[in-house]
Specification:
Layout lengths: L2 H7 L7 H10 L10 E4 L10 E4 L20 E6 L5 H12 L7 E2 L1 H4 L6 H10 L1 E8 L1 H5 L1 H13 L7 E5 L17 E2 L3 H27 L1
Parallel strand pairs: 3-4, 3-5, 5-6, 6-7
Antiparallel strand pairs: 1-2
Helix pairs in contact: 5-7
Amino acid sequence: MAGWFRRLLHKPKPSSVESLKSSHSASSSPSSSSSSSAKSSSSSGTSLATSCISLSPVSVVDISASDSPRWDKSYDVCICHSEGDVELVLELVSYLEGQPESFRCFLQLRDAVVGSAVVTELCDAVQNSHCWVMLITPGFLQDPWCRYQMHQALAEAPMANGRTIPVLKDVDRKDYPRELRNIYYIYMALKEKSFRQIRDTVMHYLQELCRSSTKSME
C-alpha cells in the first residue's frame, strides 16, 4: 500500500474544534486571499451554463478566525462517491486536506463510525458538512446509497446556494441527474484542474458564509 494512502486512512479525526481554530489562527496563510477562478463546464442540452467563481481580492476574509462560522460544523466538505471511485476520492481528500486552509473532509471509508447504521452516517455527514461534492461517475449513478445521500443534500439546501458541488467524470452530459440540473457542475477532464476548481468552490462558499455572518452582526 502506497505511503500516502496509508497516512490518509490513518489520519486521526480532529480532537477538538478549538485545537483547529488555534492552529489556523497561529498560521494564517495569505494564499487564502489570492484571486482565482473555477469554471464549470456545461451542455447546450441542459439548463446549465459556464460558471466562473472568483475569490474576491477586495474584501479579505479569514475563514479560519476563531469566531468564524466555519467552525459551526464538523466538516468543510463531504465527498459523496461510489465504492469504485475510492482511489480518486482519496487523492482529492489528500489534496484538500493538504491546502493551507486544511479543509476538513468527511471520508466515509475513514470517518464513519463502526457499527453505526449506514443511513445514520450518511445523514450525519450531510448535516455536519458545509459543502457536498457529488462525484458523479457510472458507479455513482448505479449506487442507491449515492442517490440517497444526494437527495439528503438537496433537502438540506434546496436553493442551490453553492453547497452542492456536482463533479462529472466518465459520464455523458445527458445522464446528468435531473435533480441537479439547476446546479452548475464541474466536468473532470484534467484531474489537477478539477481539484483546484473544487477547492476554489469550497473556499468561495466559506468566504461568503463568513461575510454574511459579519454583516448580520453589524
